[in-house]
Amino acid sequence: MYRDILLCVDLEDESSWRKALPTAVEYCRAFGSRLHVLTVIPDFGLSMVSQYFPEDYEAKLLEQAGARLHELVREQVPEEVKVQHIVAQGTIYHEIIQAAEQVDADLIVMASHRPELEDYLIGPNATRVVRHCSRSVLVVRN
C-alpha cells in the first residue's frame, strides 16, 4: 500500500522519533516500503542574525546533521529496511512538504506532542503539515 514513507525527526529531540521511528519501520516491513528519514535545520530567518556566525557555519551544521542522522539510522533502523537520508534547511513544515513531494512519499510519519499555549498561537509543525500537504500523514502522539 505504501511504497515510500517519509519519517521526520528532530535530532535535538528524542521524543520526535522514539515512537514514530519504530512505527515507520513496521510500516516499511509490512509493505516492503523505502524509508526516507528527514531532519530539518531551521534557518536563521534574518540575514542580520546570520552575519554573527562564521562564514562556513551553515555548511558545517548541515554536515554534522548528516553525520548524526546516519548514526541514528544505523543504531535504530534494521538493515533490511532501505533508507534514504535527507537533511534540509529552512522552514520546518515547508521542507517536510517539499521533501515528501520530491521523494513521492505515499505517507509521512511524524511525532507530535501535547499542544501547549504557544502552539495555539503559532501552530506546531505536525498541524501545518497535515493542513497543507496533499499526502497522507500519520501523526504519532508521544
UniProtKB/TrEMBL annotation:
Q: Which family does it belong to?
A: Belongs to the universal stress protein A family.
- Family annotation (InterPro entries): Rossmann-like_a/b/a_fold, Universal_stress_UspA, UspA
Q: What is this protein called?
A: Nucleotide-binding universal stress UspA family protein
Q: Which residues form the UspA domain?
A: 1-141
- Native source organism of the sequence: Thioalbus denitrificans
Q: Which domain of life is it from?
A: Bacteria
